[in-house]
Amino acid sequence: MRDDVAVRDGKAAPSYPMRRGCPVDPPPQLAELRAGPAASRVTLWDGSEVWLVTAHAHVRAVLGDRRFTAVTSAPGFPMMTPTSQLVRAQPKSASFIRADDPEHSRLRSMLTREFLQRRADEMRPMLREMLDGILSELVSEERGGGSPVDLVAELTIPVPSRVIAAMFGIPAGERALMEDRSAILIDRGYTPQQVAAARDELDAFLRELVESRIREPGDDLISRLVVDQVRQGALDIDEMVPMCRLLLVAGHGTTTSQAGLSLLSLVTDKNLAASLREDPELLPAAVEELLRFHSIVQNGLARAATQDVQLGDVLIRAGEGVVLSLSAGNRDEQLFPSPDTLDPHRDARRHLAFGHGIHQCLGQWLAKAEIEEMLAAVLRWMPGVRLAVPFEELDFRHEVSSYGLGSLPVTW
Length: 412
Ligand code: HEM
Prior knowledge:
One of its GO terms (molecular function) is monooxygenase activity. Keywords: Heme, Iron, Metal-binding, Monooxygenase, Oxidoreductase. This protein has helices at about 30-35, 55-65, 85-90, 105-110, 115-120, 125-140, 150-155, 160-170, 175-185, 190-215, 220-230, 235-270, 270-280, 285-295, 325-330, 365-380; strands at about 5-10, 10-15, 40-45, 50-55, 70, 150, 300-305, 310, 315, 320-325, 385, 395, 405, 410. The protein has about 400 residues and is of the alpha+beta class. It has a 5-stranded mixed β-sheet. Strands 6-14-11 form a 3-stranded antiparallel β-sheet. Strand 12 and strand 13 (about 405) form a beta hairpin. The longest helix is centred in the middle third of the chain and has 32 residues, at about 235-270. The structure holds protoporphyrin IX containing FE.
């Protein structure tokens, strides 16, 4: 199915997503499409055709335009994967990421103060302590002092998981189920039935957690939602469980993937490592550039037009699906000169890696704090860090919604 092409108006609509050539660059066809009309027809896995938008300005325009909906049951909404049907069948289960305003902002606003930049910064001492604990153990003589370690297994998977578990007040012993089931939800390698089963198990776990906080609130995000919202009648448990699952799923695999690829750049790009060693103050700008460069939400964001919209030279009709390619927008030379070069000195803050508009990533400050702290800790504890296998042997995970590495073996 993936290599099929559909024909409309005598023109073939290429299959989407396209395959990458170089594993750290988006598929080369995206640059060709960006040079053409504001939107191009592409064919999804199920044979349906949607619009693909690739230029930075047009991606931003659509994401900032209320005439495009994020509700999956809307006519024409792109079904990006076989499991998209699951979400379509139970739209409330996806929480506010798949809702429009005012419903979206009613739920999102209950969480905004938990995810402010200041709150993320307050977590840094805890993050540093956690990272120093992990890395001091990794570089110890008992671990073979210099023999290869896998930074994905040891760092980029456990750190975001421990952070969200700490925010939710989940004890260490109960993290495994949460990690395992949320990983299934973002991996395209599972059947819709397996995904549904994982989602149900995760929901049962979260429901129990919420109920325990209703009985006895503590000092964590879930307890604050219970006290401030549930007890006031503003939120019920059936809304709260998908909201908590959204935070777990949206925040875990994404941060793991972006941190893994950022660490890959750190160990393979001499300019990046040298620049950060010379000027540690460069770290926040470098992390923005790494977000732009890697754009891990690799297949982009889906929306549907609820009215006819003129986008540049293309008329998108009500009821047509649109896919916004964040990776193509982030390599747009109109905004980022020499876009395929990773340049920690550039101002990359207008990147689209966290989306744009009302759904722009709620957890972006937290994600950036985690990635900055992971990079800084690796530089601190592993001064001569380098790949322990040839680049060609790295295990890039193409079939997941957040592009990333299965493992990152390094030595130092
Ligand atoms: C939304 C990317 C980390 C929570 C989004 C969106 C993107 C994104 C592109 C927009 C989705 C859309 O418009 O349809 C990322 C990346 C991350 C990351 C690249 C890591 C590098 C996190 C973290 C959390 C989080 C750590 C929280 C723990 C959310 C939530 C939404 C969201 C709740 C929905 C916001 C809304 O609909 O209003 N993220 N994210 N994300 N993200 Fe993130």
